[in-house]
From TrEMBL:
Gene3D superfamilies: Histidine kinase-like ATPase, C-terminal domain, Tetratricopeptide repeat domain. Residues 444-478 form a coiled coil. SMART domains: TPR. The keyword Cell membrane does not apply. This is Histidine kinase. TPR repeats lie at residues 163-196. The chain crosses the membrane at residues 498-518. Residues 1-20 form the signal peptide. The keyword Repeat does not apply.
């Protein structure tokens, strides 16, 4: 059955800014996770988890894994029973892999219950998505979806999902400036499940609610938290800066803003670079450090040009307000006029939009800008220049039904006419002002009525949510009561249990004695194995030397002094390396291959008319990563040359191939097309058979002892190369230590 894998990312911050930039972070961290059945959360053990940088591990009996990786690495989850999943690591949060259709041997009833649980989780997420969709447009619907998401979990719902519902509800209240309710729900979310994201949101809500000390107390401990995604850390420093600024701790505020700005610049998070440059400028402006303030304001303006026109106008208006505070009216007027030109080039729908969740209609509407330009002219006693801008402000405010700006501009126009002595127009404007005030009063009454009705609806919905929380708490109380009853039962049976504990202690003592006896035997066995290995190596070295000296003797017998000298020179190099490695259980495979090539070269110089040889090592193999017992392959190669190829009438070949089977295992093949084992055995003398028995017997004993000590690290098999029993193939499989 095909199994589809779904990855649930338990990442606290998923805002687009952080996800776009977090891959740039450096440094390794421990990534924790699990692989479980989606229907019943049954753990799946033995699943391979690796990264594209080479780190790998497998899941334990609980389906859990820990792997070292960096942000931006590709995480791969593989198993013969599952489809391979690849996922780019975006933060240090846990990664859970849920496998659909895996039940782990549970009953049908449990399967039905797990399917029901899966359905409730899907409903919960769907309701949360709906709540976020209506977050900005319909508060009542949004809150109702939150309540339904909590109902879908039941009274004993998952803590993580329950906390997510409360956190989302808090975000909805915070967006609609219901800060007390937002704080309450963030606290409830933290009580259900600890979360850095929720703590930062709670801190921001405290700042907006002007409870700055509480904000600092909840946010400051998070500064030392590691593995926080960049965007999340920027928001933390920004919120701390806001709180300290409002408390008058301007140096602390500036320090936090600067830390956030460094992270924003490093990860190229442009919106936050603009925000933090602007806020640092505000701090300098508060300290009357005009040059520094203007420098950071110019930074925010430069960055805003690369983002969006609305953001540029928003920042320009902020700088214009700064000029107004410093009585630099000409600079203010010039900048606001430029903003008016920018507004004319923008669609009207963009003017009234909300940029990044902040209501910008008060700062970037043309009627508001015209009104501020007029005020700047009035501050300079340039009344004639102010009048056209006031009139434009009134017309545009009337067109957009902006009664607040229309009221202020009409009143200001009446005052200007009064200053000029044109009392007729002043009276006319004042009458218009009174009419606007009346309209505004009627609208305010309607808004108050709607707000009262709206508050009642919020209260009802909040009561519904509170009842769901109480049901959950009641369920937990029942569980606690059951635990207490169990404890009372255990207390009454305490006298009986001490007997059982005594028996268990006796059994444990016997088990400990048996374990110590077993460990002592095992240590003795290890010592015996080490002694046996040393003895076998001691036997093999003279055997190898004896065979090599026979070769030298043959050259001397033929009076080939030059070849004998060359052979002895190369043989001395080989012997030096063999003796250096004689005390080691394992040496690098690369070193063993070098020794083998030197040995084969020596034998080929003697039997060049009998065989050619080839050593083929796959270039993809990291031979330095594998270890092999020294002189393990040489006896097999010696047998191939002396007992297989030497007796062949035509010229033969010897091939040594090294191939990778798995990431942890190599296969080394020694192939010769000699006369074969059967014919070789028929040709051997009694003395040769005896020597073979010693040489190959020692090899078998060494492999047996090494496998016993190192858990089946080496496996050797010998077979005929051809169907007519000619040729021989030796296959040696070698595992990593």
């Amino acid at each position: 059955m095909t199994r589809n894998i779904y990855i649930l990312l338990l990442i606290l911050f998923t805002s687009l800014g952080s996800l776009a930039q977090v891959g740039n972070a450096q440094g390794q961290m421990q990534i924790k996770g699990s692989v479980k059945g989606k229907e019943n959360y049954a753990p799946i053990s033995g699943v391979r988890v690796s990264t594209d940088k080479g780190a790998f591990t497998t899941t334990n009996a609980l389906g859990e894994f820990i792997i070292r990786a960096s942000i931006g690495d590709i995480l791969m989850v593989e198993s013969p029973e599952l489809e391979t999943v690849r996922y780019r690591i975006k933060s240090g949060e846990d990664v859970d892999v849920l496998v659909e259709g895996y039940y782990g041997g549970v009953s049908k009833k449990q399967k039905r219950e797990s399917i029901s649980s899966r359905s409730s989780l899907a409903d919960h997420q769907r309701f949360l998505d709906s709540a976020n969709a209506y977050k900005k447009t319909d508060l009542e619907k949004s809150i109702d979806f939150i309540a339904r998401s909590m109902e879908s979990l039941g009274s004993s719902g998952n803590k993580n999902e329950f906390s997510a519902s409360l956190r989302t509800l808090g975000e909805i209240y915070m967006f609609h400036e219901q800060y007390d309710l937002a704080i309450t729900n963030f606290k409830d979310a933290l009580a259900a499940q600890e979360s850095n994201k929720t703590k930062i949101l709670l801190g921001r809500a405290y700042v907006l609610n002007k409870n700055y000390e509480s904000a600092i107390s909840i946010l400051e401990p998070l500064v030392t938290v590691r593995n926080m995604v960049p965007y999340q850390r920027i928001e933390l420093f920004e919120a701390l800066g806001d709180a300290n600024k409002e408390l008058g701790k301007l140096k602390d505020a500036q320090g936090y803003y600067q830390q956030g700005l460094v992270i924003a610049e490093k990860n190229q998070i442009s919106p936050k670079e603009i925000d933090l440059n602007s806020k640092i400028a505000d701090v300098f402006a508060s300290e009357d450090r005009v040059i520094e303030a203007e420098g950071f304001y110019q930074n925010s303006l430069s960055l805003s040009k690369e983002v969006a026109p609305e953001r540029l106008i928003q920042e320009s208006e902020k700088v214009a307000d700064f000029y107004n505070q410093k009585s630099r009216y000409d600079d203010e007027i010039q900048l606001r006029k430029r903003n008016l030109d920018e507004l004319k080039q923008m669609p009207r729908s963009s003017v009234a939009s909300r940029a990044q969740g902040i209501n910008t209609r008060d700062t970037i509407t043309s009627q508001r800008i015209n009104y501020k330009i007029a005020n700047a002219y009035i501050a300079q006693d340039k009344l004639e220049e102010a009048i056209p801008y006031l009139e434009k402000s009134i017309v545009e405010a009337d067109k957009d039904d902006d009664l607040v700006v229309q009221k202020d501009a009409t009143r200001k126009l009446s005052e200007v006419y009064g200053y000029k002595g044109d009392y007729g127009k002043a009276l006319e404007s004042y009458q218009d002002y009174v009419a606007v005030v009346d309209s505004l009063y009627v609208r305010k009454e309607q808004e108050i009525s709607r707000a009262a009705r709206f508050n009642r609806e919020i209260a009802n919905t909040q009561n519904r949510i509170s009842s769901l929380e109480q049901e959950r708490e009641l369920s937990q109380s029942k569980y606690s009561l059951a635990v207490t009853e169990q404890q009372l039962y255990e207390e009454t049976s305490k006298r009986q249990k001490w007997i059982i504990y005594s028996l268990i202690f006796g059994i444990a003592l016997m088990a400990l004695t048996a374990f110590l006896y077993y460990r002592s035997n095992r240590q003795q066995k290890l010592a015996n194995n080490l002694l046996a290995l040393k003895s076998l190596r001691t036997q093999m070295n003279p055997h190898f030397i004896f065979n090599a000296l026979n070769s030298v003797n043959n050259y001397i017998a033929k009076s080939d002094e030059r070849s004998a000298n060359r052979f002895l020179s190369e043989f001395s190099v080989l012997m030096r390396s063999v003796l250096e490695n004689s005390e080691e259980d394992f040496i690098p495979l690369a070193k063993e291959l070098e020794l083998l090539e030197l040995y084969i070269k020596l034998e080929h110089s003697r039997f060049s008319d009998k065989f050619d040889y080839e050593i083929d090592v796959d270039k993809k193999i990291d031979v330095d990563a594998f270890q092999i017992p020294p002189m393990l392959l040489q006896p097999y190669i010696e047998n191939a040359i002396w007992h297989g190829l030497r007796y062949k009438e035509e010229k033969g070949s010897l091939k040594i191939k090294v191939r990778q089977i798995t990431e942890d295992m190599l296969e080394i093949c020694i192939e010769d097309d000699g006369i074969g084992r059967k014919m070789s055995a028929e040709l051997k003398t009694a003395n040769q058979k005896k020597q073979k028995s010693k040489g190959m017997g020692n090899i078998k004993k060494r492999i047996q002892i090494l496998n016993d000590m190192y858990k089946n690290k080496v496996d050797v098999s010998i077979a005929d190369l051809n169907s007519d029993q000619t040729g021989t193939r030796v296959s040696l499989k070698l595992k990593k230590q």
